[in-house]
Amino acid sequence: MSAASFSSDAAQSLFEAAYATPALSLVKDCGKAGSSERIYSELGKMWAQTRKGLELLPPAQCHVPQEGRTLEEDLEDIVLAKNAEIWSELKSQGVDLKIGDTRLYNMPSTIRKKMGIAVQAADAQRAADRAAAEAYARPPSIPIGTPAKDSEEHNKPAGGLVAAILANIAGANSGDGNGDKNEPSAGGTGGPGNGSGGVRGSQVPPSLQNAAARLTTVGVTPLRKAAIGSSLATGFLQEHDTVTQWVRAQGFTGHSKREALTDARAIELGVADYGVGFLASSSAEVLLRRILALAVHSAMGSWQVAEKIEEVPTESPLSVVPESLLKEIMEQVKNELKVASLAKQTQ
Question: Percent helix, strand, coil in the chain (nearest 5)?
């Protein structure tokens, strides 16, 4: 028995946001894609990303298949039913689904194949990321008491986290580190990746728990601007396969290019670790707005407009006031000043 919908509201909402809505937009605007192959590939990728998101939902919010069925089977039925609905809906609206002179057909087997390719590519990328991170997670350290080659006082680090990192890098480059490769790093479990994009377990050492106490108990300044992160992410990923590709296509140079690529990397790792829902989080909101601001600055050569896009708290006491409320207050003040000015003129 095939599934018509998901068993939980969270799973259904994730499907609508990650597949149904962007799929409808993609097919409707298929004329911009260049080829039907591109459309099928994008649908396959969205299918794969949706499956990953559903797998990462908390137990209380996840979809529960009927006896004898699996999440993958139910998702496939729902995806294919949604595709049929999209093609039927657009046809009834008179939308001409053509790419050049070629008509775009609903091809379930092709889209299913593209989904499999996307899953394999994502798994391979996560494996490569974990392997690379493992290689650099614990570089050999410099043995205590080992003198520097030239002048110990001249090369002695000033202290602190950065100095410790530089010392470890120096030890790795010299090849004389004595660290135990089998010893787990601080706060880690020493095991392999956790299967959701991470390198080590999420065990938090007491020192970090205490250091971050204020962030977890008091919290941080909330977002001041209306959330547009989901719309930005949708736009970026409809234009290109990844946020990184979108950034590369903007023609950034210098420090802006490096920062934008770093922000894009953080966003993509967030999705790999926490699912598609990460793109709607406050963290992603800040990163996505910053990428857009860098793109606007790159195009205009000025920060006057670009800085208005960013979600950055200021030193002002008004930094905790939402911009919508601040704008409303300023409009009221302007109106009161106008009234006062008119009253003064009539006296």
Answer: 65, 0, 35
